[in-house]
Automatic annotation (TrEMBL):
<keyword id="KW-0949">S-adenosyl-L-methionine</keyword>
<keyword id="KW-0349">Heme</keyword>
<dbReference type="InterPro" id="IPR004559">
    <property type="entry name" value="HemW-like"/>
</dbReference>
<keyword id="KW-0143">Chaperone</keyword>
<dbReference type="InterPro" id="IPR058240">
    <property type="entry name" value="rSAM_sf"/>
</dbReference>
<keyword id="KW-0963">Cytoplasm</keyword>
<dbReference type="Pfam" id="PF04055">
    <property type="entry name" value="Radical_SAM"/>
</dbReference>
<keyword id="KW-0411">Iron-sulfur</keyword>
<dbReference type="InterPro" id="IPR006638">
    <property type="entry name" value="Elp3/MiaA/NifB-like_rSAM"/>
</dbReference>
<dbReference type="InterPro" id="IPR034505">
    <property type="entry name" value="Coproporphyrinogen-III_oxidase"/>
</dbReference>
<dbReference type="GO" id="GO:0006779">
    <property type="term" value="P:porphyrin-containing compound biosynthetic process"/>
</dbReference>
<dbReference type="GO" id="GO:0051539">
    <property type="term" value="F:4 iron, 4 sulfur cluster binding"/>
</dbReference>
<comment type="similarity">
    <text>Belongs to the anaerobic coproporphyrinogen-III oxidase family. HemW subfamily.</text>
</comment>
<dbReference type="GO" id="GO:0005737">
    <property type="term" value="C:cytoplasm"/>
</dbReference>
<comment type="function">
    <text>Probably acts as a heme chaperone, transferring heme to an unknown acceptor. Binds one molecule of heme per monomer, possibly covalently. Binds 1 [4Fe-4S] cluster. The cluster is coordinated with 3 cysteines and an exchangeable S-adenosyl-L-methionine.</text>
</comment>
<dbReference type="InterPro" id="IPR007197">
    <property type="entry name" value="rSAM"/>
</dbReference>
<keyword id="KW-0004">4Fe-4S</keyword>
Length: 405
């Protein structure tokens, strides 16, 4: 299970938004629907997920209806605040959303569409474990209005999957992708690099396999060791080695080169797409600070600068809603300095970059030093924006510190 929730102010029991919240109803609005169920817990994962033995009073077969209760609450809260808008994007994340019957996912989507409406051409994504996607599942999702499947490939190499505690068979990635494409869904595949025992050759094999799938989008994330995970304990006991920063940098450079050679363009440090249209519009909404409501246990929300997060356990979540109470556990309104740090952190990761004029005046002069160090693209900076070079992407955190300290 994930670590502790943030420390914030108490959330109102009725979920009401503050009267002085500067709501702009013209801003895009997204919905995240969290499905907190997994068959097994991967050794590296610290997401808010639960196996069947950890549910303690919560039931998967009731989850779609339970989440529907929060959707009804959100419609009431946003309507009262004058912030009710149709959804531009919807994302089912987890956990493993496709552990639920596809009909349950369809009902959850229908409840959200009925409550808020949805714009024409909206992006609707479902994350999926390769072992759970069949032609029937893909077709049911497409018929329900899903437009995109994000497949958790992680690796094509069996010993790397074993190191990550991934249980799917590598061959099932192709089966899942083909089923999704045949149903008319766009497809993204997720990869992780830097697992214990993974060589550069292993990573190259996974990249080649991902490219051969002819997907529309690839995400490639460096393995991060999170406190409290099985993998963190294994490393602490000396059973497996910690990720090697230099090897992970080599892996990132290889990914960028191989994906670019296959027709993918990077648009965020860890994400590549075949075209602008295939970029993840939902994730871009996060990176650009749009408004979204996160439904489900442990889910986070953001509206007009206000943030809140739900109780973590599915049983506590269901109990709150059954009592006609908001499942929110806490809330916060970050100050100006915190908002600036977050904006620089997120926007500089995008290929579109960040406007230099949006930095505090005293910090703008630091861009010249970043250009001299080869971290920021000089030509783009002359046009008034900060865009990371390949070296800058590898040292993105250092760039953020320089721009915000």
């Amino acid at each position: 299970m994930a670590g502790p929730l943030p420390v914030g102010d108490p959330a109102p029991a009725d979920g009401r938004l503050p009267a002085d919240l500067p709501i702009d109803a013209s801003r895009p609005f997204s919905a995240y629907l969290h499905v907190p169920f997994c068959r097994v817990r991967c050794g590296y994962c610290d997401f808010n997920t639960y196996t069947s033995g950890e549910l303690r009073g919560a039931r998967q077969d009731e989850y779609a209806d339970t989440l529907g209760g929060e959707i009804a609450l959100a419609r009431h809260v946003l309507g009262e605040a004058g912030a009710l808008r149709p959804m531009d994007t919807v994302f089912f994340g987890g956990g493993t959303p496709t552990l639920l019957p596809p009909g349950d996912l369809a009902r959850m989507l229908d409840a959200a569409v009925s409550a808020f409406g949805i714009v024409d051409g909206a992006e609707v994504t479902v994350e999926a474990n390769p072992d759970t996607v069949t032609p029937d599942v893909a077709r049911t999702l497409a018929d329900a209005g899903v437009t995109r499947l994000s497949v958790g490939m992680q690796s094509a190499v069996p010993h790397v999957l074993a190191a990550l505690d991934r249980t799917h068979h590598p061959d099932n990635v192709r089966t899942a992708v083909d089923a999704a494409k045949y149903a008319g869904l766009a497809v993204s595949v997720d990869l992780i690099y830097g697992a214990p025992g993974e060589s550069l050759a292993d990573w190259e094999a996974s990249l080649d396999a991902a490219i051969a799938l002819d997907s529309d989008h690839v995400s490639a994330y460096a393995l991060i060791i999170e406190d409290g995970t099985k993998l963190a304990r294994q490393i602490r006991r000396g059973e497996v080695p910690a990720p090697d920063d230099d090897l992970q940098a080599d892996m990132y450079e290889l990914a960028d080169a191989r994906l670019a050679g296959a027709g993918f363009d990077w648009y965020e440090v860890s994400n590549w797409a075949r075209s602008v249209e295939q970029r993840s519009r939902h994730n871009l909404a996060y990176w650009r600070g749009s408004d979204w409501w996160g439904f489900g246990p442990g889910a986070h929300s953001h509206v007009a600068g206000l943030r809140w997060w739900n109780v973590k356990h599915p049983a506590a979540y269901a109990q709150r809603l059954a009592a006609s109470e908001s499942p929110a556990a806490g809330t916060e309104r970050p100050d100006r300095e915190s908002r600036l740090l977050e904006r620089v952190l997120l926007e500089t990761r995008l290929s579109d970059g960040m406007a230099i004029a949006d930095l505090p005046e005293a910090n703008r002069t630091r861009v010249a030093g970043l250009i001299a160090d080869g971290l920021v693209d000089a030509a783009v900076a002359l046009q008034g924006r900060i865009r990371l070079t390949l070296k800058g992407r590898l040292l993105a955190d250092a760039v953020v510190r320089e721009l915000t300290d």
